[in-house]
Amino acid sequence: MKLTLFLLAAGFVLTAYLASAHDAPGHKMLTPADIAWAPAPPSLPPGASAAVLYGDPAKEGLFAMRLKFPKGYRIPAHTHPKPEVITVISGTFRLGLVGDRGPVKAFPAGSFVAMEPGLAHFAGADEETVVQLNSTGPWAITYLDRRDDPRTMAR
Q: Which of 80, 89, 109, 123 is most deeply buried (CB count within 10 A of its CB)?
């Protein structure tokens, strides 16, 4: 009986803690239904969607952002000034390194990729694909060929 009362009390305390942590500054808890998708930043080719899960990619500090690429999506050769950690959530993310004579590598759902700042690469998706990008802001992308930058093209 005492054990049952203890477990019941512990359950109430844990529930109250989780409810307060859910709304506490600096904490964020989301289910897939809570994720709000919007058009990706204009620095990416048109057609992708983005959802910022944590932080602000435009400001200093950690952030987590999901990117949803439609079938046939491509991102031309580019670099980033800060490290990027990518987890493939669904679909297959394709990644190639500039100057590498090897084939473009396919990363299925569940794959993990970590890239150092300045690594020249290109990416794409042959099917609808969702990746989660973790990094520190401000996030930026520099295309190796300025003509590939969608910010300089009419959208």
A: 123
Contact 77, 131 (CB under 8 A): no
First-to-last CA distance in the chain? Answer: 67
- 142 forms beta bridges with 79
The Cα–Cα gap between 94 and 112 comes to: 12
pLDDT for 154: 53
User: Based on the domain organization, do 52 and 74 belong to the same domain?
Assistant: yes
Count the neighbouring beta carbons within 10 Å of the beta carbon of residue 4: 8
CA–CA distance from 75 to each of 17, 70, 144, 151 (Å)?
Answer: 43, 12, 11, 13
Cα-Cα-Cα-Cα dihedral sign, residues 7, 9, 12, 16: negative
145: CB partners within 8 A, 6+ apart: 76, 77
CB 132 within 8 A of CB 107: no
pLDDT at 46 over 90: yes
pLDDT at 100: 76
Domain containing residue 24:
1-30
How many domains would you assign to the chain? 2
| 75 and 143 co-located in one domain | yes
What does the alpha-carbon distance between residue 74 and residue 107 come to, in Å, rounded to a whole number? Answer: 15
